[in-house]
Design a protein that fits this description.
Polyamine Oxidase, Chain A, domain 2, alpha/beta, 5-stranded parallel beta sheet, 7-stranded mixed beta sheet, 440 residues, 16 helices, homodimer
């Protein structure tokens, strides 16, 4: 068996196959494993500059962390939160954002409406929701424009969309938005830290979990081995990298859809599959970690959490390590990431520190260390955190997402039913693809 | 200089460079030239199974046809037209579709409204239109749902969108739709045969014009030479195919955006460019030509033109050759093409003939010859007639469309300002890219 891509999806698939006694070759284009997870040294401390959280209800990732002995600890959320909408900065203590009460009412109504819509989307077949045509033809931005009067509430929902998808609300259909929330257990489950997707962090970083999985595979793993083409019949598949090739009964392609679309297939994949991978772009996300002498924001009573609908930062979290290296984590996402990423390094850094200074005071502008990762510049990701089908695509080409093409099976978090877009979804997809291959 | 892609864009660019005395290598992935134009033998007669018309205002293509001595003749439009909306078949003689007068009024109002919107879109910078944010966040389908009450009128507009873009109205933003119409001189100019984009046909076929351009280039043309990777500095570019490579000062990539995105660039192209090519899928179009003993529809008073909002055919034209081989041309587009294309050959043929029989009588079901080309199955096109940016993309990444990356310049009909999506736009883009390269 050949598995392509050594992110959590490919590693999970390869691990399942190896544990079932199959001979596996796991081919990875980069010179490292981990896909959209990566640990980097910032001022002498390792930080996750890709996917870093294990959600409260992400039992597969929790089990992997436990199995390999990784300690988890909760994301820090204690203290005052900051909100900047349309240039107005406010702070609040509870879970209820600091908005005028009429706006708050509209926010509550909007969240409630989204949740009711989410409930109508079947988790395994989102296109079978009763309003799928209508929801697929309207973008989230157009839906907001029609349903939300308050500019601030709209700014808050915009920010949420950008953080979760790395895309602008104009790039996503309402159906995609709802289906994604459904896959993650609902709106609150996706956006919250406590009891939500950002619940746990991992001592040692998430890439280290991937490394443990890779270690199990030993010599079956081939790094710096980008797959260029795949020749296949019903019974056999031959996978070509630049110098080597592998022949197998089955292969699992565990990379993002648009990268799967770059492989040269012979014979060509069915038109519907090609049309799908043409319509599945990555969001855009950059992560910035700043470390400090002391967690001065905590001393001032701040949790470190900021949500902002301006530029460049959309959300900030306290990112202090388990052993106490004080750090903030800033996300630059969607259109902001595209603009910010195109600026010179010094200007990027200055913009980040200016924003942090505005929210947390002058100390924030003097980090001990500064580290960033712009996933848009990584051609083996093409962006982050997840790829999303473009408006109209789900009703038209969704059936090609997981449908095997001869001996070629498809994995990757974008193909997941549960927690698509997350490490959890990657694992779910890899295990599902491995089962498909083993049972056929 | 290296030019990649021997469709009309690449041929035009290479021809300009060669005529300016430059040494050129024109690299083509397929074993033929012509891109999305192709002539095929159907029952002993050559028919265009790709782009076939030269529009009334497409002076570059007209000049090329004239220069190489190709005779043009007008598309046959004389006689009764047929309309099938929501299952109701009707016929009409004039230019005014056979609809109840209230629906007609709404159709006129809708066309008028679209035209007024089109006027507000600057032809060279569509994102500078005064409502670009609002128009980019709404899909054509959502705009229709909001602005059109009559199901039949909506069906007619849907059909028009499918024919022109090969996409469903839910896949396109209103801004993309308007900008495309603007680029083609307005709604009527794009959709009409007489005085519009479907005005002229070419004796010998359009691919033969491309062949004449290729002949000028002689040994500079390399067929069956897919470009896999491009290495570049500010001053130099090295282009790699499977076995050969070329070094040059400049290169012009004259292929559809999503295929340009499949090339491995070193260093990687800027994130914004990569994000753009991820968001630029092809429409889906199949063309079916049926030839007959005699043009029986003309004898019955039909022009041969049908517009239908059902499946599988969306539009039919009389396609009789200049020397009188009677033929009909059926388009299967958008979602219909995806479904129809996935069926076995016999079922495809039967569905086409059933529909033609319904409109023109039993004789239509007994063609002398039947030929089809499903562009979704051609991996070097990935669909037809044109690629379109997905909703949200224009406001976010449009500036990367024509912006050179070091020594790499971009052509292809999708980059055209005038008649984007047509052969005319391909030529315009190729000439523009050649000028860029020559003047730098």
């Amino acid at each position: 068996m050949v598995v392509i891509g050594a992110g959590f999806a490919g590693l999970s698939a390869a691990r399942e196959l190896a544990r079932a006694g199959k001979k596996v070759a796991l081919l990875e284009a980069r010179d490292r494993i981990g896909g959209r997870t990566i640990s980097e040294d910032i001022g002498g401390t390792e930080f996750c500059l890709g996917a870093q959280w294990i959600g409260a209800n992400q039992h597969r990732m929790a089990a992997l962390a436990d199995e390999y002995g990784f300690e988890r600890f909760p994301t820090w959320t204690t203290g005052t939160k900051t909100l900047e909408l349309k240039g107005n900065v406010s702070t609040y203590e509870s879970d209820i954002p600091s908005l005028p009460w009429l706006h708050l009412l509209e926010l509550q109504l909007t969240m409630w409406r989204i949740d009711r819509h989410v409930d109508l989307v079947p988790v395994d077949h989102p296109i079978k929701s009763p309003y799928s045509d209508e929801w697929e033809e309207i973008t989230v931005a157009a839906w907001e424009r029609r349903n939300i009067r308050s500019r601030r509430v709209r700014g808050l929902i915009d920010s949420m969309v950008r953080i979760v998808f790395g895309m602008e609300p104009s790039e996503l259909s309402l159906l995609r938005f709802l289906a994604y929330m459904r896959s993650g257990g609902g709106l609150n489950s996706v956006v919250e830290a406590e009891n939500g997707a950002q619940q746990w962090r991992v001592v040692g970083g998430t890439q280290a979990i991937a490394q443990k999985m890779a270690d199990e595979l030993g010599k079956s793993l081939f790094l710096s081995t980008p797959v260029r083409s795949i020749e296949y019949t019903d019974k056999r598949v031959r996978v070509f990298s630049d110098e080597l090739s592998w022949t197998a009964k089955k292969c699992i392609v565990a990379i993002p859809p648009h990268l799967a679309g770059k492989i040269d297939y012979s014979p060509p994949v069915p038109a519907l599959r090609d049309q799908l991978t043409q319509r599945f772009p990555m969001g855009q996300t950059a992560k910035v970690v700043t470390t400090y002498e002391r967690p001065f924001w905590r001393h001032k009573g701040f949790s470190g959490e900021v949500v902002c609908d301006g530029a460049p930062i959309t959300i900030v979290y306290d990112n202090t390590t388990k052993d106490g290296v004080p750090a903030l984590l800033s996300f630059v996402v969607g259109d902001n990431a595209r603009r910010w990423g195109a600026m010179p390094a010094e200007a990027r850094r200055m913009q980040i520190l200016e924003s942090l200074g505005r929210w947390f005071g002058p100390e924030a502008k003097k980090p001990v260390a500064y580290g960033e990762k712009d996933w848009g510049n990584d051609p083996w990701a093409g962006g982050c955190p997840t790829a999303s089908p473009t408006p109209g695509t789900m009703t038209v080409a969704w059936e090609a997402l997981r449908k095997p093409v001869g001996p070629i099976h498809w994995a990757g978090t974008e193909t997941a039913v549960e927690w698509t877009g997350y490490m959890e979804g990657a694992v779910q997809s890899g295990e599902r693809a491995a089962r498909e291959v083993l049972s056929s």
